[in-house]
Protein: histidine kinase
Organism: Seonamhaeicola marinus
Amino acid sequence: MNYRAYIFKLFIRILLIVVALMSLAYTVYKGHTSYSIVIGILVLVLFINTYSFVKRRFVAMHDFFEAVKYRDFSRWFPEDRGPKDIRFLYTGFNEINRTIKEINTKNEAQYVYLQKILEMVDIGIIAYNLESGDVLWSNDSFAEILDMPSFKNIRFVENRKPELFNTIFETYHREPNSISIALQNESIKILISDTVFQVDDDAFKLIVIQDIDTTLNKNESESWKKLLSVMTHEIMNSIAPISSLADTLQYNLQIAIEQPKETKLELDDINSGIKTIKNRSDGLLKFAKTYRSLSKITNLNLQRIKVSELFNNIKLLMGPSIEAKNINIEFDISTPKLELNIDAHLIEQVLINLLLNAVDACKHKDNAQIKVLASQSSNRDIIIKVYDNGSGIPQDILENIFVPFFTSKTTGSGIGLSLCKQIMLLHKGRIIVKSIEGEGSVFSLVF
C-alpha cells in the first residue's frame, strides 16, 4: 500500500508538471507575459517539490543501506515524524533491523550453547587456519590430552614439541587412526581424525583426538562395578532361599534332638531339603563361573528334564520363604509328562528372579497370590507363566524393564530381568510380560 501511494503521488506531480509546461507554452505563444511568468514560477516550484519528494526517499534508503553495509543494526529510524510515506518507509527499516537483531541473538545463543557443549566433552577438538596457524577455536580437553597450556597459534606446539607437532598437526588422518604419542612422563594412545574445510578464501583444519587409554580404563572400571553388582544380586537371590531352607532343616533337627520321643524326624524331608540345597549351590557355582561370559556362551549344558521336577525343586527352595510372608503360591502343570530341553540351573535362576519380583510386587497386597503354570500351546511351544496379583508395572516403564541396569526400585540393581532375557535368548526362547498397574503381572517363558 505504501508503494502504491508513493507511485500515485509521484504520478500526480509529474502530471501537474506536464500540464504546467503546456500552459507555459500556450501563454508564451499567445504573448501573455504576466501569465507566462506566473506559470513559469509554478513550474519551477513543481520541479523543486518533485525533486525533494524523490530525493528524501532515496536519502532514507541510502542511510539504511549504509547502516546495512557497516552492520549497524542498532540504528532506529523515527516513525512518528516527517512525511507519511517516509514514516512508512522507516517503519519497514526498523522492522528489518529488529528481525536481523533477533536472528543475531539466536545465532549467538546457539554459538554459546554449542561452545559450552564442546567444552564439556572429554574429546579434544581444535580448528586452526592452515596458512597462518592461528587457532580458530579449541576446547580445554585438547590441551589437557596433550599436556600443554592453551595456545593461540599451533607454532607454540612446534617450538616446544616438534615431534608431537609433526604427528598431530602436519600428518593427515583422513580416517580415524590409533596412534601413540610421547608426553612428559608417559606414552599414551589416542584416536585421531581430521578434516579440512574452506571458509571464504581461508582453509581451516579441524582435528579431533580422544585419549583411548583413559576411556578404556574408565569403561573397564565401570564394567567391573556393574559385573560385581550383577554377581552380588544373583548370589544373594540364591543364598536367601538356601539360607531359609537350611534354617528350616536345622529347626526340625533341633526339635528332633531335644524332643526325640514327641517329634518324629522325617528323613525323606531332610534328604530332599539337603538335595535341593546341593542342587541350588551347584547351580549358583556354575552361574558364578559362567556369567562373565554369558553373552558368549554357545554350548549350554542342555538336558531333558520334566517340568514337574523343575517345579518341585523351585517349590521346595522358594515355597517356605514365600508362604512365611503370607503369600499363597501354587504350581500347576497342564500335562504331567511335559518336558523341556534346557540348562536346568540357568532356568532355575530365571524362575527365582521372577518369583522374587512377584513377592516384592505382592508385599502390600491382601490375599496375595502367586501362580506358576506350565502348558503347551497349539503350535507345540511350551510356556511357563508366573502370575501375581500384586501392584503391577506402570505402562511408562514397562518397555524398559528388560534394559540392563534399568530399575524403578530404590534398592534394585536393574539386572535381574535383563539376565532372564539373556538366558531365554540362549535357549532360543523368549520372555513376554503383560501387566496392569494395580491388578498384577504375568511373565511368560516361551520355549
In short: The two ends are 77 Å apart (CA to CA). The chain has three domains: 2-109, 121-212, 266-446.
